[in-house]
Amino acid sequence: MSDSEKTGNVKRSFIGMFFEECSVYSRIYKNKAETAYVGFCPKCGRKVSIKIGANGIGERFFRSDISR
């Protein structure tokens, strides 16, 4: 039995996101359907969604450059 099973913790897939407009970093996690990584800026609450495609990329860290 793994440590996560013993403690009841579930490992969730995530990617790192730097929200440039607020200069803050956060993790965003896969949605339940596993079709996208979805999260919110911890400072302003702006939503970000990154679709998961069949051909994907190996990057694990992204920057949001959405201007207001």
Structural class of the secondary elements?
A: mainly beta
Question: Average pLDDT, to the nearest integer?
Answer: 85
Unreliable residue runs: none
**What amount of the residues lies in strands?**
35-45%
How much is the radius of gyration in Å?
14 Å
Shape: globular
Number of helices: 1
In whole angstroms, the N-to-C terminal distance is: 47 Å
Q: What is the number of beta strands?
A: 5
How is the main sheet built? 5 strands, mixed
Order of strands across the main sheet:
4-3-2-1-5
* SSE succession: HEEEEE
- What is the share of helical residues? under 10%
Can you tell me about this structure?
With 68 residues, this protein is mainly beta. It has a domain at 12-56. The chain is built from 1 helix and 5 strands, in the order αβββββ. The protein has a 5-stranded mixed beta sheet with strand order 4-3-2-1-5, with no helix packed on it. The protein starts with a helix and ends with a strand.
State the main characteristics.
mainly beta, 68 residues, five-stranded mixed sheet
Summarize the structure.
Helix content is 7%, strand content 40%.
